[in-house]
Write a sequence for this structure.
């Protein structure tokens, strides 16, 4: 699965588990408007680290905080080994 | 007769700056502090609450704020009920604090807690009269914090201990407009509320139902100058396109470990703001602020400090003695809050690197998920009730979003199950059970099946203190 595919799959999985209504995902969708809260995003980041072996946030604050779903996916695409 | 030195929140607020220039802004309504000089939000029923033990149980933060301003010094005790207090704990809180009156929202009236007869509605519509707030008590402020068993711990403060860290510092050049992502019924939020009132400022109150973006827009519209939150609140705020709606002079973090990444991100987003991270807890009060932009704190803070504060490191954890600590826990079987020397053990574990100390986690494996405490035992009890589970260890996993997450190591009865390729199914089943009985932040984000867990000589699970 592509990095983008893995990220989207985790969004959908965590939304289901946490009973959150996920907004239709697009690159410009603002993360905070996706229907997922901080806890959901934290779980997604942890699971992606397990699945992809990277945590793009773990670089001493170099990475900007992502604002949109596109920003978020790009962080993982850039960090992918 | 009251001793002459008795001061109240109302008298201190009135003395701090022209009331008519100051306001409290909620999400739906606002109140000018000047209107409280000749009026009240309690509908003329303030006297009924005099000398009583009052449960402040409003949904709205603005009405809670009004009740606290009006009742400090008047009521003998104020119990600050956080909005998410589970209904099943209310009878315990009422009995333990000997509550005999309750303040609720006029807009959303609820029934009285069991055994409480006096029910007074509070409204942001200020009506004339009923505002003789002559203080007769050094009112006890009871704050609730989470306990090991799920039942809240009730922490006793007074206005004096709560405001001990707030220095007058003269009238600021421009009046401050404070806000916080916290609820003001939690220690971190209450500190900001008291700073706004005692510092002669105004305040924007957050609202549970409001998105981070909408809150930031509202805060920006009122010209917020001083703003506080946990590192998790801030990480969320920085993910919002509305982060630039505010241009604060002062940004404060507390309630969780502030790592270098979040401090650097805030510096980049608010280049002109003074950025400080504070150490404070409900029990220990505010211990210190760090303003040098670096994570951790200077080792020179250990030992006696000015203002009668003394910090100690003992068995790896931070201990604090000061006039800002809480007095005691309420309740017959309550444990001691301070040790024999008057120190409060924060259970926050420290590690020294060079000339600084860094927080590395909590003793006893307590996990801090976005500012909410999780006691591992409570989660383990749920997991261990699963018929396939022999034992479990719940521990912390670092998160760049919420600081920490809950994860569980689980030993199964029949290890064959995990090897059978049914691990995923079982993991889902355990998580489903956890979701049914635990609040969301306590449900493990991941479950690892392990062959065994280390048990020490006394038969207890070995927990790492971080």
């Amino acid at each position: 699965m592509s990095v983008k595919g893995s990220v989207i799959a985790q969004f959908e999985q965590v939304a289901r588990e946490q009973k959150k209504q996920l907004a239709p995902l697009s690159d410009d969708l603002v993360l905070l408007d996706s229907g997922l809260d901080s806890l959901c995003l934290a779980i997604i980041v942890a699971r992606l680290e397990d699945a992809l072996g990277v945590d793009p946030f773990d670089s001493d604050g170099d990475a900007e905080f992502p604002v949109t779903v596109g920003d978020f996916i790009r962080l993982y695409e850039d960090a992918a080994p | 007769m009251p001793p002459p030195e008795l001061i109240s929140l109302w008298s201190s607020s009135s003395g701090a700056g022209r009331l008519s220039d100051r306001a409290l802004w909620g999400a739906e309504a606002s109140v000018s502090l000047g209107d409280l000089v000749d009026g009240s939000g309690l509908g003329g029923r303030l006297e009924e609450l005099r000398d009583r033990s009052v449960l402040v149980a409003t949904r709205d933060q603005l009405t809670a704020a009004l009740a606290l301003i009006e009742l400090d010094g008047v009521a003998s005790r104020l119990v600050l009920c956080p909005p998410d207090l589970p209904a099943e704990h209310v009878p315990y809180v009422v009995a333990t604090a000997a509550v005999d009156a309750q303040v609720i929202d006029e807009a959303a009236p609820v029934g009285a807690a069991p055994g409480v007869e006096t029910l007074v509605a509070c409204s942001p519509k200020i009506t004339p009269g009923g505002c003789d707030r002559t203080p007769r008590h050094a009112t006890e402020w009871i704050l609730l914090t989470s306990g090991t068993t799920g039942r809240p711990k009730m922490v006793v403060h007074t206005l004096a201990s709560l405001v001990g860290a707030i220095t007058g510092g003269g009238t600021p050049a421009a009046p401050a407009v404070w806000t916080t992502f916290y609820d003001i019924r939690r220690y971190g939020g209450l500190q900001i509320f008291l700073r706004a009132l005692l510092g002669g400022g105004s305040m924007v109150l957050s609202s549970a139902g409001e998105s981070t973006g909408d809150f930031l827009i509202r805060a920006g519209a009122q010209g917020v100058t001083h703003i506080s939150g946990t590192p998790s609140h801030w990480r969320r705020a920085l993910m919002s396109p509305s982060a630039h709606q505010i241009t604060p002079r002062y940004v404060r973090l507390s309630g969780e470990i502030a790592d270098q990444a979040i401090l650097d991100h805030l510096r980049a987003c608010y280049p002109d703001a003074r950025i400080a991270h504070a150490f404070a807890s409900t029990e220990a009060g505010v211990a210190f602020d760090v303003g040098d932009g670096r994570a951790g704190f200077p080792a020179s803070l250990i030992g006696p400090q000015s203002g009668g504060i003394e910090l100690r490191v003992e068995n790896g954890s931070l201990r604090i003695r000061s006039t800002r600590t809480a007095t005691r826990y309420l309740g017959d079987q309550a444990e001691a809050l301070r040790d024999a020397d008057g120190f409060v053990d924060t259970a926050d574990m420290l590690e020294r690197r060079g000339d600084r100390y860094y927080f590395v986690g909590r003793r006893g494996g307590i996990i801090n998920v976005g500012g909410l405490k999780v006691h591992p035992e409570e989660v383990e009890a749920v997991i261990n009730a699963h018929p396939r589970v022999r034992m479990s260890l719940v521990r912390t996993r670092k998160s760049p979003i919420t600081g920490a997450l809950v994860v569980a190591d689980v030993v199964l009865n029949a290890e064959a199950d995990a090897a059978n390729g049914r691990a995923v199914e079982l993991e889902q089943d355990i998580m489903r059970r956890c979701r049914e009985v635990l609040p969301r932040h306590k449900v493990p984000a991941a479950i690892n099946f392990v062959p065994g867990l280390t048990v020490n000589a006394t038969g207890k699970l070995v927990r790492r203190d971080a």
